[in-house]
Each structure stands twice: as C-alpha cells, then as structure tokens.
Design a protein that fits this description.
Elements (H helix, E strand, L loop, with lengths): L1 E2 L1 E2 L2 E2 L9 E2 L1 H14 L25 H12 L6 E9 L2 E8 L2 E8 L6
Antiparallel strand pairs: 1-4, 2-3, 5-6, 6-7
C-alpha cells in the first residue's frame, strides 16, 4: 500500500485523509517515480531513480537504452516487470505488469534527457 500522488502532491479526500493505492496502481506509481527521478537526486535515497547521464534525446538507440535503464532502476519493485514500448519526442510509453495485471503509463523525460 502507498499514498496516492497527484501532480507531485499527496492526494487527499475532501476531509483531509490520505488516499491510498495498492496493486497495479501502486506499481505504476512506483515505476513513474523511478523513471522520472534522476538517480542520486533524491536526498533521502540516493539509489532511487534512473541514471540518464550521457543519454541524449536524439540517440538512435534511445528506446532500447531507456528500456535497459528503466528495467534496472525498477528491478527492486516487488513482483513488477517493465518494458519501454515506444519513445517519441522524449515521451516514453512504459508497460507495467504486476501480478498478472497490466497497465501502460507515459512519462515525459524531456527534463532529464540531454
């Protein structure tokens, strides 16, 4: 179980209670956080995130490299597999599989790619 994030903030009910997520929704949120965080930038966990150093948006092998890097950064997310399906204009489409449930998510990497 995790707290739901909405636009980078903790999501809350009208009465001020936290909204919680589980299952595939939690897995997708964890993948998004890992994919959108440059490894070493999160002060409380320097291992969180993806190491995009040296990766350029115009790289001819961008999708393949993103797939490898994001798989590596998400390897410790319990019972979750990830695959970069496509990447155009610095937006990666990622398939997330968690306990036989599947979802896709888009992440805009324009802020982390050179």
């Amino acid at each position: 179980m995790d707290v739901r994030l909405s636009d980078g903030d903790i999501a809350m009910t009208a009465s001020g209670d936290y909204l919680y997520i589980t299952g595939i929704e939690e897995a997708v949120q964890r993948v998004r956080i890992s994919a959108l965080t440059m490894k070493g930038d999160f002060v409380y966990d320097r291992e969180l995130g993806t190491d995009y150093r040296g990766l350029r948006a115009d790289d001819s092998m961008l999708c393949e490299k993103l797939d490898m890097l994001i798989k590596e950064s998400c390897a410790d997310i319990f019972d979750t597999q990830v695959e970069v399906l496509s990447c155009e204009n610095s937006v990666a489409v990622i398939r997330v599989i968690y306990q036989n449930n599947e979802a896709t998510t888009e992440v805009d990497l324009s802020g982390v790619l050179q």
